[in-house]
Specification:
Radius of gyration: 20 Å
Number of strands: 4
Strand content: under 5%
Structural class: mainly alpha
Largest sheet: 2 strands, antiparallel
Length: 281
Amino acid sequence: MVNRLLTAVIALPLVILLLWLDNPVLMMAGMTIVSVISVGEILLATKYFSNKGIAAVCMIFVTALPSFLCFDVMIRYFPMLSGTFLLIMFIIMLFDHEKVKFQEIALMSFVSFLVPLSLSTIVFLEKKNEYGIFYVILALLIPWISDAGAYFVGSAMGKHKMAPKISPKKSWEGFFGGIVTAVISVIAVGLGYPWYIGLIGGTADFTVNIPLLIVVAIVGSVLGVIGDFSASLLKRQCMVKDFGSILPGHGGILDRFDSVLFVAPFLYFVFNMIEPIQMIV
């Protein structure tokens, strides 16, 4: 508990600083670093990092992919980058087929696409319009605050286990506690954002669609749990407790971002259909 809180106290200011700078290039750089570390943690957990050639190709691809996705001038080359990556992976398998199996290539290719692609949607949200940083805050707040609420409520009163064979500590009480925590948090952020814009000298000539945020918080909390369970299942199959130890009390970087991988793309999809901020005419 103490390590968990200390890590949050140290890491939170860095996240706030990145949000406050509101710079797409810095955001992309941050998501690239998270992607590279996360994919590396998966490859280490699955023992696939032992094949240095394939691991190097994956790391290079994961490093490059966010730039190709987030810069308009480079996105046209995304198919070429992806095709080249897959071609090289299969060539390595052909030349080293006695040691490299298809399932190894399939998993490494899958995570090398999934992680940076999902996290790049955070940059897409920031670039969406002048209020993009508000969307980024929601994409990070919903899974993280829901997880925190589930942890504390589950620790205090959790009795009915959700999936003891996958994640023994998760309870239904914590699950619903996390949803309630997320809903209360997004309401507070939604109501406080116009006030914040006015405070920093901007013009709060807009309203926030609170009912939409409530629905997004509920669905996002559920998706966050699915992401968490997916990561827990992978860890169990790999027989590791955490993906790493870079964040004391939390585990690895992926242990913090596993739920974000599911929530951020969902918010990007929803907010492209329904704008949560309406301008006052």
